[in-house]
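Lecture notes, part 5. Sequence design as translation. It can be helpful to think of inverse folding as translation between two languages: the language of shapes and the language of residues. The source text, in structure tokens, appears below.
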């Protein structure tokens, strides 16, 4: 048997034997416990009264979360921090929003909304793993909280985990069946799952799109997103590796191109998350523009590809 498994089995048997020596169990329950010990010893071939076997105190490994008493005063103060966090979200000050939501959670750790709102802020800061943790915490507190599943789906989509994103959006629709955003994101995740294995350079021969770049450059959400990317240490490391590959010799060019493509793909994913309607406007501009926002039909066009995930709705 694996040494770790052996230690675990020995520890469980040791715990059960210690319970037999206590006074909290009736004779009938002790008899049942003795049978359980014998079954474990037989199944895992453990000899009785072994000396020198390694065991672990299992109870010492269990950490009980201290219950926080939430008074009416703490509840009111927590709501104040949540409101401040929501205001920071509207102003695109996402780290400040995280700080306020964290203060609310410290005062009242049993409100699922606080975790869900902080998850939205983490997503904007490109901290998707933290967002996933907060969404899961919100779901523990309120298993029917549709918005938590929706934001969980967005975080998984940002990490290209479309199978998990699909499950999250599906559950979100279960609790909020009329939410159009969840329905759209569910379809997008399904399409990307299907296209992930066969997606290559399908648009390699396409010509440049005559987009209005000022619409992109002046978009405050995109500006904020770009600021976050440029200040990210991982981005700096990626660019440094790219420059080093190119400056050494031409042999490093394929790797540099691949690095640049990865950076572009990551940046493009953030663009669609920050401004999901941007590419639609680009398409309308390419087709001559349409004031009412409707694209003219084209019977010879290829089937429409997956749309970007819709932008998350505001904080609760």
């Amino acid at each position: 048997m694996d040494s770790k498994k052996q230690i675990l089995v020995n520890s469980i048997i040791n715990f059960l034997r210690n319970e037999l020596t206590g006074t909290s169990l009736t004779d009938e329950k002790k008899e049942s416990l003795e049978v359980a010990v014998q079954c474990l010893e037989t199944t895992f071939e453990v000899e009785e009264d072994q000396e020198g076997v390694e065991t672990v105190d299992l109870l010492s490994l269990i950490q009980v979360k201290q219950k926080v008493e939430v008074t009416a005063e703490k509840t009111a103060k927590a709501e104040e921090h949540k409101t401040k966090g929501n205001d920071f979200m509207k102003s695109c000050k996402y780290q400040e929003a995280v700080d306020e939501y964290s203060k609310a959670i410290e005062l009242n750790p049993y409100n699922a909304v606080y975790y869900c709102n902080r998850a939205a802020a983490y997503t904007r800061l490109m901290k998707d793993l933290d967002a996933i943790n907060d969404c899961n915490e919100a779901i523990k507190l309120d298993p029917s909280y549709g918005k938590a599943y929706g934001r969980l789906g967005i975080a998984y989509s940002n990490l290209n985990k479309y199978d998990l994103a699909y499950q999250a959006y599906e559950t979100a629709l279960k609790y909020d069946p009329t939410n159009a955003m969840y329905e759209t994101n569910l379809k997008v995740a399904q399409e990307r799952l299907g296209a992930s294995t066969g997606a290559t350079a399908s648009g390699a021969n396409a010509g440049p799109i005559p987009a209005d770049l000022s619409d992109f450059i002046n978009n405050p959400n995109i500006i904020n997103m770009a600021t976050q990317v440029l200040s990210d240490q991982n981005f700096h490391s990626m660019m440094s590796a790219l420059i080093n590959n190119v400056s050494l010799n031409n042999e490093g060019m394929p790797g540099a191109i691949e690095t640049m493509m990865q950076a572009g793909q990551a940046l493009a994913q953030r663009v669609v998350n920050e401004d999901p309607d941007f590419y639609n406007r680009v398409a309308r501009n390419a087709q001559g523009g349409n004031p009412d926002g409707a694209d003219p039909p084209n019977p010879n066009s290829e089937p429409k590809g997956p749309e970007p995930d819709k932008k998350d709705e505001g904080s609760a």
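The translated text above is only one of many valid answers, since several sequences can fold into similar shapes. The chain has three domains: 3-60, 73-196, 217-283.
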